[in-house]
Design brief:
Length: 78
C-alpha cells in the first residue's frame, strides 16, 4: 500500500487565496472560472479535513494529559 501524501495546509490556503483573487477579478471566461471554482472547493474540503484532524489530535493529547476539554471558538466583530 502506498503512503498517503501529506496535506500541506499552508500551501493549500495560499493556493485558495490565489484562486479567490482570480475569480474576483472577473477576467476569466466562464468555463475557466468554473474549473477554478471546482479546484477551490476541493482545496476547501482538504483544508477542513486537515483542521478537523488537528482538532481531534489536540483533544486526544489534552485527554491523555488530563487537561481541559476544548471549547468552541467564536468570532467577535471588531
Amino acid at each position: 500500500m502506498a503512503a498517503a501524501k501529506k496535506f500541506d495546509l499552508e500551501k493549500s490556503l495560499a493556493n485558495l487565496e490565489e484562486l479567490v483573487e482570480e475569480l474576483e477579478s472577473g477576467d476569466l471566461p466562464l468555463e475557466a472560472a468554473m474549473k477554478k471554482f471546482e479546484e477551490g472547493i476541493k482545496l476547501t474540503r482538504g483544508c477542513q479535513t486537515a483542521l478537523k484532524e488537528a482538532e481531534q489530535k489536540v483533544q486526544v493529547l489534552l485527554k491523555s494529559a488530563g487537561g481541559e476539554s476544548l471549547e468552541d471558538f467564536e468570532l467577535t466583530d471588531p
